[in-house]
Amino acid sequence: MLSANQIQALLDGVWVTVRVFALAALLGSALALLFGIMSLSENRLLRWIARIYVEIARGASAIVLLFYAAFAIPIILGMRSGRTFVFVAAVIALGVNMGGYGAEVVRTGIQSVPRGQTEAAISLNLRFMDRLRHVTLPQALVVMLPPYGNLSIEVLKATALVSLVGLADLTGEAQNLRVQRAVAGSRAATSLAIFGTALLFYFLMAQLLAILFRWLEKRLAGDWYRGRS
């Protein structure tokens, strides 16, 4: 059994995990939307920029991006790598990685909208951004949400990597507790209890995300079908 102090330490780690995930998801979503739309632009330069970003973000290992952002960039910029900088670097690394995969989700979602919808919007003299906001994206969201929900859960689990750069997230706190208790004995039983509890917390967070995205899917699908009727 874990003590109250140990459980509190893990809960503190959960809070760090939630903050890293939330900020990384916001950044990743913004990048996904931006580069997903750019990849469908009629401008060849914008398409190439989007393609380069997507290939780099998807091709680079998340852990390598994390170490580069946390340790290499401060050396390049001549800065000190404090706790705040490492936190920001972790958010940026995970957000950039998520944006690369998310951009492809956005692109395929937009392409799934029937061409006639876009042509009808053009015939009404709607500008590009107005077509996106009022016609294309509302329909594309119905297609995008399921894979984007899966991507978000993967990013949540990937936050465990931030413990490797010194952040006291859920995994980091679990490892700290294991090391502390291993010195006092009962290593196997304590490790089982600590990491079993950490697994439970990750599972609960993932389930909350899954429930949220299922609710959004039903809500948007219902609004879309009502709009068509």
Question: What is this entry, summarized?
Answer:
This protein has helices at residues 4-38, 44-59, 62-77, 83-111, 115-123, 128-158, 170-184, 187-228. It has 229 residues and is mainly α.
Please tell me about this protein's structure.
The protein is mainly alpha-helical. The chain has a single domain (4-228), classed as MetI-like fold, CATH 1.10.3720. The protein has helices spanning 4-38, 44-59, 62-77, 83-111, 115-123, 128-158, 170-184, 187-228.
CATH fold naming = MetI-like fold
Give the ordered list of helices and strands. Answer: HHHHHHHH
Sheet/helix structural class: mainly alpha
Inertia-based shape: flat
Q: Any guess at the CATH architecture?
A: Orthogonal Bundle
Give the number of DSSP strands. 0
Mean pLDDT: 87
Helix-residue proportion: over 70%
Total helices: the number is 8
| Low-confidence parts | none
Largest sheet, in brief, is: none
The CATH class assignment is: Mainly Alpha
Strand content: under 5%
CATH superfamily: MetI-like
End-to-end CA span: 57 Å
Radius of gyration from the CA trace?
A: 21 Å
Oligomer: single chain
Keywords:
MetI-like fold, 229 residues, flat, 8 helices, 0% strand, mainly alpha
Q: What is the element layout, followed by pairings?
A:
Layout: H1 4-38, H2 44-59, H3 62-77, H4 83-111, H5 115-123, H6 128-158, H7 170-184, H8 187-228
Helix pairs in contact: 1-4, 1-7, 1-8, 2-4, 3-4, 4-6, 5-6, 6-8, 7-8
